[in-house]
Design goal:
The complex is a heterodimer of chains A (170) and B (122).
Chain A lengths: L19 H8 L3 H6 L2 H7 L1 H5 L3 H4 E9 L13 E5 L13 E2 H4 L3 H13 L10 E3 L12 E8 L17
Antiparallel strand pairs in A: 1-2, 1-5, 4-5
Chain B lengths: L6 H5 L2 E10 L10 E5 L3 E2 L10 H4 L3 H12 L11 E3 L12 E10 L4 E2 L8
Antiparallel strand pairs in B: 1-2, 1-5, 4-5, 5-6
Chain lengths: 170, 122
């Protein structure tokens, strides 16, 4: 059954021609592959129309440890950071915390939201889910590491708080 | 088969997630590349050869919890049942873009050799 798509979003006949030259080498796509993309995937890529073709390179996500009682033994300490690019890759050179999988794994959900929000023209960083925690509990959570996440610019590391990163819709 | 390792030796080992297949990956992950973790679950960037994509790293989190559980039970850390994993991207034919598959193994960093499973009960 054909789905109706809100005109704000990418329509089935839209082949993303304006960004094909970027997408094809980046993802090893042929023209046929571009045709095969679901409307949802096309919409995800079309976030570039809202935030600019280079938005993935302009920002970073910073996960800063705010509490680390040391229960899990991985060695994370308050004030340390793990930095990700917007393609959800760790940037080890900018990170000073141990890259603990238990603490990093919950951060993946942030990146579902960054892509979703970019497709809406919003600041990619969620305004709701700004805190994550590792799954270690110890006694009633006393061993748990906590972290706060934020968005910053790649070049100056300035925090990005503005709600809309494109023009606010009428 | 190999002999059961002493606990201290085992905890010095590494878990290697080796890419067995990858396609249309935006993070350019390629077959044969690895994600290397210590036994506490810390990703070791200097030993890993793949781009450190959270889309597969997070998918390995349950595998590392399971490895730690198996160690606590005296078992080989890599489950014979769950030792291959894929990333969160559903792939181009299923609403996503690409896909990465990995196989988990236990590696002795001193020798670089894969530590094979030892007989249950050893």
């Amino acid at each position: 059954m054909p789905r109706e798509i809100d005109p704000f979003y990418v329509q089935p006949q839209d082949k993303l021609e304006d960004m094909a030259d970027v997408l094809k080498p980046a993802l090893e796509f042929t023209d046929a592959d571009l045709d095969r993309l679901s409307p949802e995937a096309k919409n995800l890529f079309a976030g570039r129309r809202r935030l600019g073709i280079d938005w993935l390179d302009r920002y970073e996500v910073v996960l800063e440890i705010t509490r680390s009682p040391g229960g899990c033994g991985c060695g994370v300490r308050e004030g340390q950071k793990i930095v990700f690019d917007m393609r959800h890759k760790v940037k080890p050179g900018l990170s000073d915390a141990p890259l603990c999988v238990h603490l990093m794994a919950p951060a993946l959900s942030l990146f579902y939201m960054t892509f979703d929000r970019a497709a809406e023209g919003l600041n990619p960083m969620t305004c709701v889910w700004r805190y994550i925690e590792c799954p270690m509990t110890g006694h009633h959570g006393e061993a748990k590491a906590l972290a706060e996440v934020s968005l910053r610019t790649t070049d100056t590391h300035e925090p990005v708080f503005k709600r809309w990163l494109n023009e606010e819709p009428k | 088969m190999s002999a059961k390792l002493d606990r201290a030796v085992l905890e010095a080992c590494e878990l290697h997630a080796t890419v067995t297949r990858a396609f249309h990956c935006a993070n350019k992950i390629r077959e044969g590349q690895t994600f290397v973790f210590d036994m506490k679950g810390r990703l070791l960037p200097d030993k890993s050869t793949a781009n450190l994509c959270l889309g597969i790293i997070a998918k390995l989190h349950p595998a590392i919890l399971m490895a730690q559980d198996r160690i606590a039970s005296g078992l080989h850390p890599v489950s014979p049942s769950f030792n291959t994993f894929d990333c969160y991207d559903t792939g181009i034919d299923h609403g996503g873009t690409g896909k990465v598959y990995v196989q988990l193994s236990l590696v002795d960093p001193a020798s670089g050799a894969t530590v094979q499973a030892w007989p249950v009960g050893q």
